[in-house]
Write a structure and sequence with these properties.
By secondary structure, the protein is α/β, with parallel strands linked by helices. The protein is about 30% helix and about 15% strand. It has ten helices and 14 strands. The strands form five sheets. Strands 1, 4, 5, 8, 9 and 14 form a six-stranded parallel β-sheet that branches.
Length: about 400
C-alpha cells in the first residue's frame, strides 16, 4: 500500500513539473511579440512613454497544469472607475493590480470580447481566457500626464497599471475592451476633457488611436449613457449610431463590433440594440450592426464553441469586493473553466469522468440596474448642454 501511494504521488508530480517547464518556455517565446505591440506608435499621436515586456521576468510564475476543456466557461469582467477608493462602481488601484496578479497566477490571459465572438482564443496549453471590459471612458482608465512638453501615460491609471504589469508578466497582452462614452458629463468623454483630472480635450482622439494601435478593442456605450428603455426608437438609434460615429471620427474606418448596454437596460425594441441607423440634419446616415452585446451582471459565459453561447447577450462579472476570487474558485472547483489545449485546429472537450455533476452555480444575478448607485458614483451621465456633442467632420 505504501509503495502504491508513492508511485501515485510521483505520477502526479513529475508530469506537472514537465508541463510547468514547458509553460515557461512558451510564455518566454511570446514576450517579444508583446513588447513590440506595447512599443508601437500611433501616427500623429503625442509621444508617449510605453513600457515593454522583459523576457526574463516572472520566472516560476507559470500557470498550474490543468486538463484541457475548450467547452468550458469564460469570465467577462466589468470595471468602471479605477482610483483611490473601493466601491460599487470603483476599484481601488492596488486592488486592481492584485486582480491582475490573481488571474495571472490562476492561468488566465486577456482576450477581447471580439476575440470570443470570432473564436480567436489561441492560447498556450493549460491557459484560460478572460475578457476585461471597462465602461464609461473615465480619466481613471486612461490618463495622460505632461512632463517637459511630452505626454506620458499616468502610471496610476488603469492603462498605466496594465502596462507596468505586462513588463514583469510575459504573455499579458494588450487586450481588453473599452466601452466608450464620447459626450457624457463629469469627464466621461473619451477619457476626459475640459481639464477634468488634468485632461485636455485635444487628447481624446489620440487616446483612442493609441488603444486601437495596441490591439485593445473600442466598444460603443452610446453617446451619453442614455437609459434606452425610456426613449423612443429614433433616439435609441441616434444614441447608438452617434457613439459609433464618434469612434469613427477618432479612428477612421474602425469597425465597432460590440455594444455595452447602459445600465444593462434594453430598449423597448430590442432589435435596435443590435442593428439600426440614424440620419443627421445634413442627410448623412450612420448605421450599426453589432456582433456582440454586453449585459451588466451575471456569470461566466459559455465557450464560443458551445451552442449555448449567445454573443448578443453576454453576461459580465462586476468586480466588487471578493467577487472575482469567488468566481474563479467556483470555476476551478466545478471543473467548468475554459482551458486551452494549445492546438487551435481542434476543440478539446473534457473527459466524461472529469465533468462534475451539477455545473457551475449561477450565483445571484442582479434583478435590475442599480441606477441610483451608478449615478452617485459617476455623476449624472446625462445629455450635455446643446452644442458640445461631437460632430462627424
Amino acid at each position: 500500500m505504501y509503495r502504491r501511494r508513492i508511485a501515485l504521488l510521483l505520477s502526479l508530480v513529475l508530469p506537472a513539473a514537465c508541463r510547468a517547464g514547458n509553460d515557461r518556455t512558451s510564455t518566454s517565446d511570446s514576450t517579444s511579440a508583446s513588447g513590440q505591440i506595447a512599443s508601437a506608435a500611433t501616427p500623429g499621436a503625442p509621444t508617449t512613454s510605453v513600457p515593454t515586456t522583459s523576457s526574463s521576468a516572472a520566472e516560476g510564475m507559470a500557470a498550474p497544469p490543468r486538463a484541457p476543456n475548450e467547452m468550458g466557461r469564460i469570465p467577462i469582467l466589468e470595471y468602471h472607475l479605477v482610483g483611490d477608493t473601493e466601491a460599487r462602481w470603483s476599484r481601488q488601484r492596488d486592488q486592481f493590480r492584485r486582480d491582475l496578479e490573481l488571474l495571472y497566477e490562476r492561468g488566465y490571459r486577456p482576450v477581447t470580447v471580439s476575440d470570443l465572438v470570432v473564436k480567436q482564443l489561441d492560447l498556450p496549453a493549460g491557459l484560460s481566457p478572460v475578457a476585461f471590459t471597462f465602461d464609461d471612458a473615465s480619466p481613471s482608465q486612461f490618463r495622460y500626464v505632461e512632463r517637459n512638453g511630452q505626454l506620458e501615460i499616468d502610471p496610476t491609471s488603469a492603462i498605466g497599471i496594465w502596462l507596468d504589469f505586462a513588463k514583469t508578466h510575459p504573455g499579458w497582452a494588450t487586450k481588453a475592451t473599452f466601452c466608450l462614452l464620447p459626450s457624457a458629463t463629469h469627464g466621461h468623454a473619451f477619457f476626459g476633457d475640459k481639464g477634468i483630472e488634468g485632461q485636455k480635450t485635444e487628447w481624446r482622439y489620440p487616446k483612442l488611436q493609441w488603444l486601437a494601435a495596441q490591439g485593445f478593442e473600442l466598444c460603443d456605450h452610446t453617446l451619453w449613457h442614455a437609459n434606452l428603455a425610456k426613449v423612443s426608437d429614433a433616439v435609441v438609434q441616434e444614441q447608438i449610431a452617434r457613439g459609433v460615429m464618434a469612434i469613427d471620427s477618432a479612428v477612421p474606418g474602425y469597425r465597432v463590433r460590440t455594444l455595452a448596454l447602459p445600465l444593462g437596460v434594453w430598449p423597448k425594441n430590442r432589435v435596435l440594440a443590435q442593428r439600426g441607423a440614424w440620419r443627421d440634419a445634413k442627410g448623412r446616415s450612420t448605421s450599426y450592426d453589432f456582433d456582440a452585446i454586453l449585459e451588466v451582471s451575471g456569470t461566466p459565459v459559455p465557450s464560443p464553441h458551445d451552442p449555448a453561447f449567445d454573443p448578443l447577450s453576454l453576461d459580465r462579472i462586476q468586480v466588487i469586493g471578493s467577487a472575482l476570487t469567488q468566481v474563479l474558485d467556483r470555476l476551478e472547483k466545478s471543473g467548468t473553466a475554459y482551458v486551452s489545449d494549445g492546438d487551435p485546429s481542434r476543440i478539446a472537450r473534457p473527459r466524461p469522468d472529469s465533468v462534475i455533476a451539477g455545473r457551475i452555480a449561477r450565483g445571484t444575478r442582479a434583478t435590475g440596474p442599480d441606477t441610483g448607485a451608478h449615478v452617485a458614483a459617476h455623476g449624472r451621465l446625462t445629455q450635455p448642454p446643446r452644442g458640445v456633442l461631437l460632430k462627424h467632420d
